[in-house]
Amino acid sequence: MIRDVHIADRPRERLLRQGAMSLSNQELLAILLRTGTKEESVLVLANRVLGAFEHLHHLKHATIEEMVAIKGIGEVKAIQLLAAIELGRRLAQKHNDEKYTIRSPQDAAAYLMPDMTSLSQEHFVALFLNVKNQIIHKQTIFIGSLNASIVHPREIFREAVKRSAASIICAHNHRRAHIFTPLKQYYILGNS
Questions:
Q1: Share of the chain above pLDDT 90, in %
Q2: Burial class (CB within 10 angstroms; exposed 0-12, middle 13-18, buried 19+) of 45
Q3: What is the signed CA dihedral for 21, 24, 26, 30, rounded to 10 degrees?
Q4: Which of 44, 46, 59, 118 fits 30 for a cystine, CB–CB 3.0-4.6 Å?
């Protein structure tokens, strides 16, 4: 049990003394979980959560159902973990409150890749830009099957008109090849 661990070696105390960077994934997860079960310590429970997913980054796609299927994780702990994971995902995104400007297909790829590279299905996404090529809105237009997505232009243009977009960038992830490729075509909307 965590009470049996020397106080100086407990995750919270180590974080206070040495900073979060010094802690292992297991210890960081243990802090988020807060408590273990009657049978095992929070460190053992954290280790089981990590073991339930092949890699740490697979946690960002975990569902409530997958979390509560882990012995010792109830709905409350699952919600806490998923909220923390979502906050981390948002912090990892490079774009912040100021408008992100697209100057090249590489800029669009850099903006979209963090979210699209690990999706399990085909996603068709549109970026809507203002006259300065700044992103005013991002929307997933269609989620397809494992290897296909069918999109009708009216879905794209309806959103563009609604947002008064000056231009649109469309992109989708190629699941078969496990790569992300933005379309290198800009659709320019007229001002009329």
A1: 29
A2: buried
A3: -40
A4: 46
Residue that has been written with the tokens 């569902």 in this structure: 63
pLDDT attached to residue 66: 93
- pLDDT score of 188: 43
Nearest to 45 by CA among 22, 4, 78: 78
Confidence of residue 60 (pLDDT cuts 50, 70, 90): confident
